[in-house]
């Protein structure tokens, strides 16, 4: 296939005529509850560019929500998938198993930030991994309660909706929610002004007083909160919580679904915290765009589930496993963790310059290529969701795929493919900061 030029190009307005045609077909066929940020439709993608149906070339600052870290259609992933799909699409690992699943489990054991004997079970989506991590923790402990943090996001299924904090759009009208899920305060330094020790004390008080350590099967947290606003907890917060879990026989689950696989400048974000979880959940960046998720944890916890208790028809599909092995080996050979750290340096410098001129950029935060700005009213610090949406919309119309997030809807997040060029990255961020300045 011809190379996709790595430059932004507006052939038409966005949405162009073909995108408008598709929007019409969509309105009468696709469920209204499924929404899209971009008004246009993709046809192909490579590294930092997504090309749409009208021949527009968009700068990708989203990676399909932290999925195509190795680039969409990365050559090694394409080769591996094409070979695998021609040999064997599916047998179901629970019926007739195959090597790829085992190879992914071995790779996860090697890379996960947990020492000792590890085991892995594979699934299709992030939510499914989280559900299964909770099932495993409950079997292992014989307890039922699960704690999750304020601003948490863990998925959209019944159990994971209960774990997710934000009502609109994720939970609104969808109750009742799974029982025995408890919400505790976390650490949001920009807004709560607490250091790690104080924030952890606050969390632990709620754990002990409202739930009771002896009832708690698991505590789940994202080492950097994703949908909740790219919130980096105060230093020492996660370590203290992990230690408390250990002291109380509570399974500590790090949800690395968004932070994992080189995204934050390490294989997993827990590594920055010097923390060893009992279980990690992975998905998103794991397989270069193919659907795959994993639960990886200490053997004694993972193996407490009875035979046949875990699985799924498509869980750990041979095609997704082949894609994962190729994506991971691309991350290794191109040292994409290092690339994520370079991206952080470049983007943070650019954003700091913008912040000096524009106090509505309240905070710049994140790690590696998982970066965000929180937009506020400079006088009061109040979240400014309207500015956020208007600026993001303007950047999208200018040909930059721009994602927002945050409990208060006032965060613009940057999740570029790790293979994006410096030039495209700087141009894309420039479009966003100009859009903010122009509102
Ligand atoms: C995206 C995400 C999930 C859910 O993954 P899906 O594949 O959408 O089900 C869970 N946890 C975190 C931290 C996520 O970012």
Return the CATH architecture of the largest domain.
3-Layer(aba) Sandwich
For this structure, what is the CATH homologous superfamily of the largest domain?
A: Type I PLP-dependent aspartate aminotransferase-like (Major domain)
Gap from first CA to last CA: 40 Å
> What small-molecule ligands were found?
pyridoxal-5'-phosphate
What is the C-level CATH assignment of the largest domain? Answer: Alpha Beta
Strand order, biggest sheet?
4-10-9-8-7-5-6
Number of helices: 15
The run of helices and strands is HEEEHHHEHEHEHHEHEHEEHHHEEHEEEH
Low-confidence stretches: none
Q: How much helix, percentage-wise, in residues?
A: 25-40%
The rounded Rg comes to 21 Å
Binned strand content: 15-25%
In CATH terms, what is the fold-level topology of the largest domain?
Aspartate Aminotransferase, domain 2
Question: Keywords, please?
Answer:
2 domains; Aspartate Aminotransferase, domain 1; aminotransferase; four-stranded mixed beta sheet; 39% helix; Aspartate Aminotransferase, domain 2; alpha/beta; PyrdxlP-dep_Trfase_small; EC 2.6.1.22; seven-stranded mixed beta sheet; binds pyridoxal-5'-phosphate; 439 residues
């Amino acid at each position: 296939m011809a190379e996709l030029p790595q430059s932004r190009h507006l052939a038409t307005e966005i949405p162009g005529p073909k995108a408008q045609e598709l929007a019409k077909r969509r309105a009468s066929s696709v469920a209204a509850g499924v929404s899209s940020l971009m008004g246009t439709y993709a046809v192909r993608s490579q590294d930092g560019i997504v090309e749409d149906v009208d021949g527009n070339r968009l700068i990708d600052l989203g990676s399909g929500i932290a999925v195509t870290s190795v680039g969409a259609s990365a050559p090694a992933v394409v080769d591996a998938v094409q070979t695998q799909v021609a040999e064997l699409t599916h047998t179901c690992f629970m019926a007739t198993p195959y090597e790829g699943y085992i190879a992914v489990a071995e790779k996860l054991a090697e890379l996960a930030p947990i020492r000792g004997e590890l085991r892995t079970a594979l699934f299709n989506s992030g939510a499914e991994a989280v559900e299964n991590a909770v099932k495993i923790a409950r079997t292992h402990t014989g307890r039922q309660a699960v704690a999750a943090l304020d601003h948490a996001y863990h998925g959209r299924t019944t159990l994971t909706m209960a774990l997710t904090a934000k009502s609109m759009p994720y939970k609104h009208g969808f109750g009742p929610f799974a029982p025995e899920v408890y919400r505790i305060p976390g650490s949001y330094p920009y807004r709560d002004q607490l250091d790690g020790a104080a924030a952890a004390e606050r969390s632990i008080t709620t754990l002990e007083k409202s739930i009771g350590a002896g009832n708690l099967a698991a505590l789940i947290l994202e080492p950097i909160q994703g949908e909740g606003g790219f919130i980096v907890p105060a230093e020492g917060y996660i370590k203290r919580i992990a230690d408390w879990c250990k002291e109380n026989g509570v399974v500590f689950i790090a949800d690395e679904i968004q932070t994992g696989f080189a995204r934050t400048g390490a294989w997993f974000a827990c590594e920055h915290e010097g923390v060893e979880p009992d279980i990690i959940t992975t998905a998103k960046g794991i397989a270069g765009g193919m659907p795959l998720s994993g639960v990886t944890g200490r053997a004694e916890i993972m193996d407490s589930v009875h035979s046949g208790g875990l699985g799924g028809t498509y869980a750990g599909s041979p095609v997704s496993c082949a894609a994962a092995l190729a994506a991971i080996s691309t991350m290794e050979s191109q040292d994409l963790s290092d690339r994520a750290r370079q991206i952080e340096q470049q983007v943070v410098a650019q954003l700091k310059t913008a912040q000096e001129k524009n106090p509505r950029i309240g905070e710049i935060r994140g790690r590696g290529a998982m970066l965000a700005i929180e937009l506020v009213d400079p006088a009061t610090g109040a979240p400014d969701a309207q500015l956020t949406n208007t600026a993001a919309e303007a950047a999208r119309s200018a040909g930059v795929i721009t994602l927002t997030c945050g409990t208060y809807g006032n965060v613009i997040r940057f999740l570029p493919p790790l293979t994006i060029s410096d030039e495209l990255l700087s141009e894309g961020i420039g479009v966003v900061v100009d859009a903010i300045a122009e509102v």
